[in-house]
Amino acid sequence: QAKTAGRNTLRFFSPDLQVAINSRVAMEEGLRLAIAKDQFLLYYQPQIDDGHLVGAEALIRWNHPENGVIAPGHFIPLAEETGLILPLGQWVLDTACRQIAAWAAREDTAHIVLAVNVSALQFRQPDFIERTFATLEQTGANPHNLKLELTESMLLDNVEDVIAKMTALRSRGVRFSLDDFGTGYSSLSYLKRLPLDQLKIDRSFVSEVLTDPNDAAIARTIIALGQTMGLSVIAEGVETEGQRDFLSGLGCQAYQGFLFGRPLPLDEFQMSLRTLTSVSQ
Ligand code: C2E
Ligand code: MG
Ligand code: MG
Ligand code: MG
């Protein structure tokens, strides 16, 4: 037992484990500090429907003073484990809504529907509805220009609660997209009950849609499902014209991917708006 072991109570920890714990603690501390210091940015990636820019997805980046711009894959999982996703998610919603309000004042951007990723922990907050309405009101954002991206896993929690939250937000015009669709476990009978607007085909099915018949079949099924259920379908991760044309042949109308534009900082995104329509035709 550690107690009888004398002065070194850490003797059961291997050096490797100690290093892992230290770096995790350091990382968590770094994240906490970064939130306090406001070191985050939103990048914007265009969404194209029927050849026109109709929206964008807001994607968070950590603008680290020493390490440069860090992608969300490197810090969102830890933020979720530590609960720091709550202040971070609120920052994202706030920033996105302020951007919606700013875009509303410009003729070429007023129509943009901005999609925001919402974490399970964030959506599960008992006051998520009130928080979102408060953010919309404080920023002056039109709820019709906000789309929330949920994932299948978070919808399995408590169906009634999920439906109640979605219905309340939707009654004011907020839209809902089901992100990474096809990678989770939602049952079709359950899906039917959700007040969704859109299914988003996961990038993993799009990347090999031309070469893998299984991925092609999944994409075809999702598009047909969307049509049957009266939902729009957007394909994520479209990188080539071949993929776009194939998906278009299956009845897909909306796309997001490097073919149309990478996620960009605000200034560059706004500059790219002028040229975007010509690329997307
Ligand atoms: P996601 O919501 O599925 O976002 C799409 C990801 O696919 C983005 O990665 C985007 O850069 C990438 N992508 C889009 N088109 C292409 C393409 O044509 N090719 C390739 N190779 N990649 C493409 P990103 O920005 O690194 O974000 C990764 C994930 O991090 C997101 O996946 C989302 O789950 C999460 N995330 C990003 N921002 C937020 C946020 O504000 N809040 C929360 N909770 N999660 C976020
Ligand atoms: Mg997303
Ligand atoms: Mg996605
Ligand atoms: Mg994805």
UniProtKB/TrEMBL annotation:
Span within the full-length protein is 906 to 1186 of 1186
Which organism was this protein described from? Telmatospirillum siberiense
EAL domain residues are: 24-277
Q: What is this protein called?
A: Diguanylate cyclase
